Structures are given as structure tokens and as C-alpha cells.
Amino acid sequence: MGCSVLTTRPLQMMSDALAALRAAKEVQADTLAPELYRQANEWYLQAQREYKFKNFYLAKIYIQKARGVAERAEIEALLNCGDRMTQAVANEFPQSQEEPVYEKDPLRRRPEKSKHSADYP
Q1: Phi and psi dihedrals of 78, rounded to 5?
Q2: Where do the structural domains in the chain lie, given as residue ranges?
Q3: What are the contacts of 62-69 at 24+ separation with CB within 8 A?
């Protein structure tokens, strides 16, 4: 169906949809609007699968659906007296912990302390 030569990678769209899912989770959409939240997760997983197969055209379609449904789930949860709970969402969707470049690259060294720094004897 889709061809990676004719369609660009939907990286920004994937990021936006994931942000919409996080926002929905933050207002407890998984309990206050469970059907919409479940649908949004399913569309997002479909998009990830198509992205892995480099079928970017279908991935874009699925990711648009995921974002739209996630935003509807967020609104539905807010209308049902949802409250934002940022710490619980942070634990649910952990951010990637990038290690510094000098840890990955053996040719790069750690920055050394200057002779003029306050803790130099």
C-alpha cells in the first residue's frame, strides 16, 4: 500500500499523538472515558506497527485517528470531573534517560575541572 519513498516519516505526528495520550491519562481518561481512551491506545499501537513496517501512509492515518480520539477522551474526562495528576502520568510514561555523550563514546572524555574552579586546592 504505502511506500516510504513517497511519504515522509510521521515523527512529529507520533510525538503529538503520544502527548495527547499522556494528556488524556493525566485527566484520568482511562477511568472516566475508558472506551475512548482504549480506542486511542489501539489506534496508536496500529500506527506504531505500520511505522515499523515503513508503511508511513497508513501510520499517518492511524496516528491522526489516535490523536483525535485521545483528545476526545481528554475532553470527556474533563467533563466528567477529571482532575490532572501529573506525577502518576510521569510514572506511567517514563521519559528516556539519555546518558551523556562521553559515556557512549570512548574517545570523548569527561569534562575536567578547571584550575580556577572554587574546589581546586
Answers
A1: -65, -40
A2: 11-104
A3: 63/10, 63/13, 63/14, 63/17, 64/13, 64/17, 66/17, 66/20, 66/21, 66/40, 66/41, 67/13, 67/16, 67/17, 67/20, 67/40, 69/36, 69/39, 69/40, 69/43
Q: Which tens digit of pLDDT belongs to each residue from 2-40?
A: 554 677 899 999 999 999 999 999 999 999 999 999 999
Grid cell 559515556 in the structure block, residue: 103
Q: Is 54 left (phi over 0), alpha (psi -120 to 50) or beta?
A: left
pLDDT at 100: 47
Convert the pLDDT of each residue in 59-73 to its tens digit.
Answer: 999 999 999 999 999
Q: What secondary structure does DSSP assign to 58-91, as a single string?
A: HHHHHHHHHHHHHHHHHHHHHHTT----HHHHHH
